[in-house]
Amino acid sequence: MRKAAPLVVPVLLAIADAMLVNGVELDLEVGVSMAAAAALLVRRRFPLLVFLFTLPGLYIGYIWFAPMIALYTLAALRPGRARLVGCALLLIAAHFFPYPISDFELTDYRENTLVLIDASVTSAAPIALGLLMRTRRELASRVEDLTRSLRREDRLLADRVKTTERARLAREMHDVVAHQVSLISLQAGAVQVSTEDAEARAGARTIRELSVRTLEELRHMVGVLRADGGEAAEARDLAPQPDLEELPRLIEMSALDVTYERGVVAGAGGVSGAKTVERAAFRTVQEALTNIRKHAPGARVRVRVDPVDAVRGPAADGAEAADGTQAADGAGAADRAAADGGGRTAHGLRVEIRNGPPDATATVPALPGGGHGLVGLRERAQILGGTLEARRTSDGGFVVRAEFPYGTGRSEAEQSEAR
Asked: From which residue to which does the signal peptide run (predicted)?
C-alpha cells in the first residue's frame, strides 16, 4: 500500500482537478483531461512523453495538476537543462494561449501580462521542487557513502591498533616468557644428566618435556600474534591443537592423585565442531588441574568426560546432592550415553573436574595467579554455545563442570580474535 500511494494519489488528484474544472459530462475537455490524468501512471518510466501527453489537457481542459506533476517528475528524474527549459516554455505556451486560439486578444495587455506571470510561476514551481528533491536524494546518498567510508576507516584504524598491540604482546612473550622457559629447560636438562637419583632424573625429564612443549606452543602463539589476515589463519592451522587424546598424558604429568573416568572416545563425535569442543574440554581440564595444584595440594581429584544427548544449563543439570556428589540422573544419563554411543550420536560433551579438600600436611606452592583462568573458561564455553559452572562443594572441595555442544558457537579462529 505504501509503495502504491505515491503512484495512485497524483492520479486521483488529477482526476478530481479535471472533474472540478470540466464537470462529469463526456466531451472533448473531459476526455483530454482524463487521458492526461491516466498518463501519470507511467510518469516515472516515461517522464518526458507523459508531460507532453498532459499538455492538451492543460490547453483544452484547463487542468493544472496533471502537467505540473508530470513536469515535477521530469525535473526529479531527467534534469537536463535544455530539456527543462523547453518543457517550461511549452507549459507556459499551453497555459498562456486560450482554446480556441481565435479567442486570444493581443491588445488586452493587462490580462495577458497576468496570465503570462501565472503561467511562468506554474512552470517554475514544479521544476524547482523536482530539482530540490533530486538534490536532497543525492545529498542523502553522499552522506550514506561518507558514513560507510568513515566506518571503514574506523575498522582499518582498529585493525592497525590491534596489529600494533599484537606485535607488542609477541615481543613481550618472546623476550620474557620464552627466555625464562628456555632457562628452565636447560636447568632441567642439566639435572637430568648430572643426578644419580632415578626419581630426580624422571622429574627433571618431565620438567624438560613440559618446557620444550611450552616453548613450541609459545613459538606458534608468537607467530599467530605477529601474523595478519590470511597469514594469521595459516599460523593458527599450523599451531599444535590438543584434544582428548592428550588428556591422559596431561593428567599423568600433573603430579596429582587423579582418577580419570572416560566416557567418550577422542574424535568420536563425527559431527561439525567436534575438534573445537575437544580442545575446549582439554583446556578446561588443564586449567582446573592448575588451580588444584595452587589451592588444594594433596587433594583427590576426579576427572570425567562424558557425551551428552542435549547440552543443558547448570540449573537443569540434575544439580548437586547435599554431600556434593553428582545427582544420579545426570551420571546415569552420561553412563547410558557412553554405553550405547555406537547407537546414537551425542550432541556435545560434559566435562567435570571435582576435587576434595586439600591435604593439611601438604605444602602450598607459592604460585602466582591473576584470577583470570575461570573467567577465560567461562568465556570459551559461551563462545561455543555451552555453559560452565564452578563452585565449592559441601565437603570443602571444588567442582568445575562444563558442557559444550557440537556444531554451534564460533570457530577456534573466531575465538582467538574475540579474546
From this structure: none
